[in-house]
Design goal:
Largest sheet of chain A: 2 strands, antiparallel
Largest interface: A-B, 60 and 60 residues
Distance between the termini of chain A: 37 Å
CATH architecture of the largest domain in chain A: Orthogonal Bundle
CATH topology of the largest domain in chain A: Multidrug-efflux Transporter Regulator, Chain: A, Domain 2
Strand order of the largest sheet of chain A: 1-2
Helix content of chain A: 55-70%
Oligomer: homodimer
Radius of gyration of chain A: 23 Å
Number of strands of chain A: 2
DNA sequence: CCTTGACCTTCCCGTAACTGGAAGCCCCAA
DNA sequence: TTGGGGCTTCCAGTTACGGGAAGGTCAAGG
């Protein structure tokens, strides 16, 4: 399988697949002409990674998950811990974003949004100090 | 005012303030010794930016907001539009994250999390294809 | 007067996870 | 043989900074 087919079948851009090889997530073989020669197992791994990424796991998480996945003697406890930590981070991001949404929608609601220069949003950015949503969502 | 004081009073790290100067958000004067000499107006701008950042606005949004803020003839409509677009993005990120949270917590719930290798989380990453939360939260 | 330590300066590298683009092979079909 | 698409590598850029090195400056203490 060449990279184009793998890209089509995994849903990942070829660029991304090359990147995953570069950082050692996969190790496709090579044809004599230098083209990457993907096995079914490579495709399978890529699909695994794609789904993990879609759940928001970082690349390093994916690497760990992949290692666990391939380890016959893994303990599901380790997988669960990793996933739980990730879930916690997601929950915190949601909280941060909801705090932003709250503040922002109040400001927007208060703004006439017409041709006049008077604007509660800008005023809010000037004076407000009550709400501190934290460090952003990264 | 030197950068240390401005950092203390604005809550922004000195590094960040230098960065904001580098990208042209502020333009502090310079003392003869080469130290940045901040005016009250610089501090004010930095505080403005800090609050906008805390609401999740990008640096470029901040630049635009600052320009609107300093424009006597702005129309609040323009501010509101910018804020509304940002709010929409936030709402979408929240949706994405909630979808991830949902899927992830189902998988976690189903996982025994003990010493055995059997793990629904890994299985989910292998097979699942029903839920596609989109492009991540970026 | 000299030293010490806290500031300040610039400069460069690293982050996460790619994406875009350039320059150049390779392969197949007309 | 020529054209077009696919493949290769390498380099640069993205966002918003943070870390750290090398070195100038300033005020206080001995």
């Amino acid at each position: 399988m060449n990279i184009g087919e793998v890209a089509a079948r995994s849903g990942l851009p070829a660029k991304t697949i090359r990147y995953y090889e570069e950082i050692g997530l996969i190790t496709p073989l090579r044809d004599v002409n230098g083209y990457r020669a993907f096995r079914e197992s490579d495709l399978h791994k890529l699909a695994f990674i794609a789904r993990a990424r879609a759940l928001g796991f970082t690349i390093e998480d994916c690497r760990a998950l992949l290692a666990l996945y391939q380890d016959e003697h893994r303990e599901s406890r380790d997988v669960k811990r990793l996933a739980q930590r990730h879930l916690d981070k997601i929950a915190e991001k949601i909280r941060t974003l909801e705090s932003m949404r709250e503040t922002l929608s109040e400001l927007i609601e208060a703004c006439a949004g017409d041709h006049r220069p008077d604007c509660p949003i800008l005023k809010g950015l000037c004076e407000e100090s009550g709400k501190a949503p934290g460090k952003g969502v990264a």
